[in-house]
Amino acid sequence: ILRRYVNQVDSQLRPDGQGPRLMFMQSNGGLTDAHHFQGKDALLSGPAGGVVGMVRTAEAAGFDRLIGFDMGGTSTDVSHYAGELERTHETQVAGVRVRAPMIHIHTVAAGGGSILHFDGARLRVGPDSAGADPGPACYGNGGPLAITDANVLLGRLRPEFFPQVFGPKGDQPLDASTVRQQFDVLADTISAASGVRQTPEAIAEGFLSIAVENMANAIKKISVQRGYDITSYTLVCFGGAGGQHAGLVADRLGISRIHLHPHAGVLSALGIGLADIRQVVDGSVEANLNQELLADLAPRWAQMEADGKATVAGQGVTEDRISALRRLGLRYTGSDTALSVAAGSVAEVQAAFEEQHQARFGFISPEKTLVVESMQVETVGATDAVDLVPEAVAPGAGQQGVFSTVMASQSRDTVFVDRSSLTPGQPLAGPAVLLEETGTTVVEPGWAATAQTNGDLVLERVEALPTQVAVGTTVDPVQLEIFNNLFMNIAEQMGVVLENTAASVNIKERLDFSCAIFDPSGELIANAPHMPVHLGSMSESIKSIIRQNPHMNPGDVYVMNAPYNGGTHLPDITVIKPVFNDAETEVIFYVASRGHHADVGGRVPGSAPADSTTVDEEGVLIDNLLLVSEGRFLYDEIHAVLTGGRWPARNAEQNIADLQAQVAACEKGTTELRQVIDHYSLEVVHAYMGHVKDNAEESVRRVIDALTDSSFTYRMDDGHQVSVTITVDHADRSACIDFTGTSDTHPGNFNAPSSIAHAAVLYVFRCLVNDDIPLNAGCMKPLQVVLPDESMINPSYPAAVIAGNVETSQVVVDTLFGAVGVMAAPQGTMNNFIWGNDEYQNYETICGGSGATARADGCDAVHTHMTNSRLTDPEVLEWRFPVRLETFHIRRGSGGAGKHRGGDGTVRRVLFEEAMEVNVLSGHRVVPPYGVDGGLPGAVGHTRLIAADGTVTEFGASAQTNVVAGDRMEIETPGGGGFGSPS
After folding, report:
1. Does residue 106 sit within a domain?
2. Checking CA distances to 899, which of 42, 495, 725, 873 falls within 20 to 30 Å?
């Protein structure tokens, strides 16, 4: 499609092959000829133009450490620059992972058109947008309230300074009266729901605060979370709405300088005009770094460079204006995280890598071998130099008037001035609003704007920010949303630290971990969107540690994996840190991280025997162990535990490295929580910990209002069953979730600790809430959960549990959804595929079909419900292990038919090149995933061994076998059930 379009435009521009050359901006930050332009190059080409424009204009003004803030109508793009364009080789666009070199840009759904919502308790901004038609309410086309309307109501945007192009006929001014009317109605609605009367202006300012918080968090993702201290950076604002919010965003980040080019409103277009022609070519290497390798790469470098220069020269660039940059992608052996460094000698490359690794992840591992993953040649064809000093513009009328605005919660007389009339070198103190053709810049109180001789505008904070903001402890719809986002963002930052510093593939690349924040009693407050089975059960681990340790010391950190004290299964190890008050006399929070360790001992590699009957066969059990004592990591003690017993851990050093990463994640959470306390006060933070739980509780009670009594029994492949009866008390707005009738303790390993059943209930009722609320303990307050003693969902030691966490957890969720009848069954299994020997161990879960609902088909080839991990990329899998991935495709037709069809499963076949022990833990090999309301069930799965001689052996849900070189394991995963009659 793109090629046809490009060729059509090119042929019309150059019908005889002569005339202007058609060039396109690429996502990698460079221009290319139309004939070289590809679809992957177009995905982020517009935002990439903005980054190039930012760098060129800000560097010309003398700034070299930059945060890009590109705010438009529907979204905000943020970027980081510290001397060179940052690229990523893997980007997710609209949920699709794309592997191609692109400028590293993070996008958040917050723009001028982001719609303002009130859900009965909280104010929310976006993610939906009013778009250009109908647009925000002020456009006069019947649109909803949006961020732009908040600025209009607050007087930061005034109709008289906009052209009359609005309304149904495009001939009206901005409609401020409609904005006022809609905010008045919203104020009445909020007052009726909360019992607190707020002015429309206070509500509008609250929406702005939420949007600013969201945008600041996006900037943290590409800067602070990657180890950069941005307080000394310059915030470069561009896009149509960037200048309106620049000061507010800068204050939230602690940045004290803002740069705006005269063409900031259209800087992406300017950046495209300033961009050089670039050709980026990558080559795979996958070899250890040494002098011999560098010598072997020399001819490849030469060929790649020659090809790149020829391509760029063919686009009309003379040889003297072409340069080439050589870079290597390096990583430690055993890691998938490669860093890009300039090519050079072995010593130079290693030093550059270690410097970058230390800055990014906080550690280096000199004992590990460095692997050259890839080589890259970036060929640059310099375009004609452009004078960045804009043409002289006739001075504007100067001061346009003094108008009332609301800034920093006060009504203020604010001067409105034409930007072009500012005298260079003379600061204009805020509050002020600067007007220009392509944007509006708000100078907040405490800031001053100074025009430069080249036409640029620099804003600087001239008054210190208050160290603590005044926020009351009574629930406020604005602060409720801000604290929801704050708590969740802290958990996300913990997860980034864990991902960055972990040593194992399971945690670092498959992202099989979770981080969360808890109140002083161990109740879940907030989490990042990690593993549902972890998040709902971690609270029980915290409470267990609290019960067993009445006297904790500052700097202590605990570790545990005991399934009968809040754990799930032994590979899931939880690290728990109490956070003390300033006086170190009282625990004020807990932070915790749980990670799935690749091996914690046990009878088989990967700690997941298919036929275990006691937990001792599944690995090392850790219960209430002090991991860090008053700040000192107890290496010897944890090493002794991991290497002791009948079946010790096979790679204790990697376990310890991951535990240290989990401790680092908890330290990050502690630091961030302390910063929030410093900003708001402990009293306020504790108050909002309660308010966010109350908000979640009320949301679940609204779900209960719509439920009726129901029950469901779900049989497993081996005849065991999970039963549930949901009894609703509408008067009390509560429900009893009674699992009486569930099978007794399983003789094998399909027992799920009680914490997993609670996690499943929490997850299901959170899913039933049709709103964006956090997963926290408030969701469980209206719910009474009854678990039969010594049942397979409430076992006691020494019952085996390895499959209970990964398989029975899914059955419990599907049983609950079966009772409420809103969703057909998904594949209902994680298809745990574990294989290894003394040298290699790998654990993966394989996706399948999701269940259909009353409104939508199921999805093909996805993980569902209690798992959310990622498969290792095929190239990495085959590089790291002696296996070949022969096929991995969608299993067409495996989803159940219905008015809405179930999602299809997958087929995955692995060829082994060495002898291995293989274990498979799965489900739905006999009993198919159910359909709902006449929908047909999904297809069952299959697990088979295809021996090297062609012999095929079929297995059931649990399988343990030994393979030799040439054998293949093939797994067909189940499809999801259909919803509604196919007819």
Report:
1. no
2. 725
Q: Is the pLDDT of residue 388 over 70?
A: no
Distance, CA of 259 to CA of 747 (rounded, Å): 68
pLDDT of the residue at 938: 98
- For residue 786, what are the CA distances in angstroms to 142, 272, 628, 723, 794? 50, 63, 36, 11, 10
Report percent pLDDT > 70 for the chain: 96
> Averaged over 770-793, what is the pLDDT?
89
- Cα 865 to Cα 408, 716, 721, 861, 892, distances in angstroms: 43, 17, 19, 13, 22
Termini Cα distance of the chain? 36
d(CA 908, CA 827): 15
Dihedral sign for Cα atoms in the order 871, 874, 875, 880: positive
393: exposed, middle or buried (Cβ count in 10 Å: 0-12, 13-18, 19+) = middle
From 766, 800, 822, give the residue that closes a domain.
Answer: 822
313 and 358 in a common domain: yes
Give the DSSP letter string of 163-206: -S-BTTTT-B---HHHHHHHHHHHHHHHHHHHS----HHHHHHH
d(CA 929, CA 923): 10
Do the Cβ atoms of 316 and 21 come closer than 8 Å? Answer: yes
Report how far apart, in Å, the C-alpha atoms of 774 and of each of 692, 699, 838, 907, 973 are. 8, 10, 42, 35, 31
Asked if the peptide bond before residue 782 counts as cis, ω within 30 degrees of 0, the response is no
Query: Can you tell me whether residue 351 is helix, strand or coil?
Result: helix
Q: Does 690 share its domain with 567? A: yes
Domain count, the chain: 5
Select from 822, 848, 866 the last residue of a domain: 822
pTM for this model (two decimals): 0.77
In angstroms, the Cα distances linking 841 to 42, 210, 372, 883, 957 are 40, 45, 23, 12, 21
**In terms of domains, do 622 and 740 share one?**
yes
CA-CA-CA-CA torsion for 243, 244, 246, 249, nearest 10 degrees? -150
3-state DSSP helix/strand/coil % of the chain, to nearest 5 = 35, 25, 40
Tell me the per-residue pLDDT of 358-384, one tens digit each, with 9 for 90 and over: 777 666 778 889 999 899 999 999 887
**DSSP assignment, residue 143?**
P
Residues 697-756 have pLDDT tens digits of 998 999 999 999 999 999 999 999 999 999 999 999 999 999 999 999 999 999 999 988
Q: What is the 3-state secondary structure (H, E, C) of 870-885?
A: CCCCHHHHHHHCCEEE
Is 625 among the domain residues? Answer: yes
Decide if pLDDT at 442 tops 90: yes
Asked whether 778 and 700 are in contact (CB, 8 A), the reply is yes
In this structure, the chain runs to a length of 983
Same domain (yes/no): 166, 281: no
Residue 532 pLDDT exceeds 70: no
Which position has the token pair 């800031």?
447
In a domain, 218, yes or no: no
In a domain, 266, yes or no: no
Confidence at residue 530, expressed as pLDDT on a 0 to 100 scale: 59
Q: Does 979 lie in the same domain as 854?
A: yes
Average pLDDT, integer, range 764-768:
90
The pLDDT value recorded for residue 496 is 85
Residue with the two structure tokens 């995963």: 973
Q: Which two tokens stand for residue 848?
A: 């399948």
Instruction: State pLDDT tens for residues 291-316.
Output: 999 999 999 999 999 999 999 998 88
Residues 814, 829: one domain?
Answer: no
Tell me the H-state helices in 563-645: 635-643
Range of the domain at 375: 277-381
In this prediction, residue 470 carries a pLDDT of 65
Q: For residue 94, which phi and psi values (nearest 5 degrees)?
A: 55, 40
| 139 phi-psi bin (left φ>0, alpha ψ -120 to 50, beta other) | alpha
**pLDDT of 621 strictly over 90:** yes
What three-state secondary structure class fits 396?
coil
Question: Are 917 and 835 a contacting pair, CB within 8 Å?
Answer: yes
